[in-house]
Amino acid sequence: MTHRVAVLDKDLCQPKKCGLECIKYCPVNKSGADCIILNEEVKKAQIDEEVCNGCGICVKVCPFDAITIVNLASELASDKIHQYGPNSFRLYKLPTPRKGEVVGLLGRNGMGKSTVVNILSGNLKPNLGRYENPPEWDEILKYYSGTELKSHFEKIKNKQIRASIKPQQVHHVAQAFDGTGKDLIEKYDERGISRELIKELGLENSMEQNLKELSGGELQRLSIAAVASKDTEFYFFDEPSSYNDVFQRKSVARVIHSLAKIGKSVMVVEHDLTLLDYLSDYIELLYGEPAAYGIVSNVLSTKIGINVFLDGYLPTENVRFRDKKFSFDVSSTSTDEFQEGSEIMAYPKLEKKYPSFSVTIEPGRVRKGEVLGIMGANALGKTTLMKMIAGVEKPDSGEIDKKIKIAYKPQYLQNDIDVEVITLLDKANGSQIEGSQEEEQILEPLKIKKLYNKSVKNLSGGELQKISVAACLLQKVDLYALDEPSAFLDVEDRITIAKFLQKFVRSFGKTAIVIDHDIQLMDLISDSMIIFEGVSGVSGHATPPMPKADAMNRFLKSLDMSFRRDEKSLRPRVNKLESRLDKNQKDSGNYYYKG
């Protein structure tokens, strides 16, 4: 027996622009039943899941890719926790908060993480899939009898549980709160620990500024401090790494850990696998079809949870949720196959001085068929180097050869333009993209075709990032400069883009420079690396390009972190601080272990 899921993306469904193919070609409609109709109220298609036979013809004929039809195992029908309405997203099963532990939620964007947060924090009452006649609390508690979640929901019902939530989009905090960093912390500090949090998160200089003047990283850490300083039973952090450099991510991890140590329930959604590995005691996977349905797995240990996610197969539940597994290559990539002298640009020692900041960059060269990674703390001049190479900024000493063509994807993306994605991509390509070779080589592997008819201003953060990367790669240039391409992307998209960029650069003899703070992504993507060191906001110093292993070792040493290879997936894993492996590797000077 199967349980049918029919979901309509209301943003993509445009009945005025199509010939209502879904209604016309539906075989159930042809037989005289009303399976797909046009809802006159909302002027969108509506599918009757009870009548639908799951043939999938409507999915194929819809010109805007607005329909998803999935047949699920019938057992799942009884596990439905919430559904928003007809033909809309539904969630199956829930993760269980654990006192004194950090539970990491790992999955693609659009799998229901925000629904999970809202239900477990008491902001959304689960309707068990009955959106027309939602159940009362007694029925919900009966549904959960004999499970750990029953006592959690009893506390929600009796208003005995309080939740403290760090939202994904921290700029909403600045919009909602008019005041300084100090005002925000003082408003929420119920535990009397604001001083320690300000020091741990490096927020001393952000206290007197209005929230609207703070950078993304400062706002992120301030939001984390405000959430951690509340005295509640349940804490939830949605993507706490965004905008922060690796050093700041480590401080954030310590703050989140400290809550579990005092017996609190903590849940974290995070797409930086290094940080998730470092943070979590347990992992629960979310899998399914983005924006259609999400299923929460049983609880797993951190190591097994991440490996299962990379494999795309849940052995305990015998479920394959992705048709390919992500693998990590042990060999350090090298560009020896490209002849010496195939450098596309060389630069001398460069210096740039601003009134309160200066940066010095050691000479280097960029070679054909190579991805050059750039790592280091925030405010050391990484973006300045990128801008000097791209010709956007001029160095005060040293000169860059301007003969090569460069495409630059900036760190902060503009989403306030009201044009369709296809128009933006046509412009980047210099000609019509549909049916072109570039569409096949770049847009299909990055799964962007579905977004063609969406307006840029309606894209999510992850969609906007993918479009920006694609628009950069479509330009006919010698060097692609990408500043923080991982921001807002989920783990799958990060790995897909890293592997795609590697292949693209090698296959077409191109060159890319990538700045990012996701260590695992940088390890996966880079052939060689530049490390930035110095005092943030005061002075920065960049090394010449170094072999990846040497650069990673130097960078990890500055973080006081050591990496080992996971014996199964070969992905880099962070050793727990002060563990036997951590001490052994540090004693031998091998912070980055490649064997």
TrEMBL record:
Keywords, comma-separated and alphabetical: ATP-binding, Nucleotide-binding
Name this protein carries in UniProt: ABC transporter related protein
Ranges in a coiled coil: none
Extent of Basic and acidic residues compositional bias: 574-586
Residues covered by region (Disordered): 574-595
PROSITE patterns: 4FE4S_FER_1, 4FE4S_FER_2, ABC_TRANSPORTER_1, ABC_TRANSPORTER_2
Entries under NCBIfam families matching the protein: PRK13409.1
Residues of the ABC transporter domain: 67-312, 319-558
GO terms assigned for molecular function: ATP binding; ATP hydrolysis activity; oxidoreductase activity
The 4Fe-4S ferredoxin-type domain, residue ranges: 43-72
InterPro entries: 4Fe4S_Fe-S-bd, 4Fe4S_Fe_S_CS, AAA+_ATPase, ABC_transporter-like_ATP-bd, ABC_transporter-like_CS, P-loop_NTPase, RLI1, RNaseL-inhib-like_metal-bd_dom
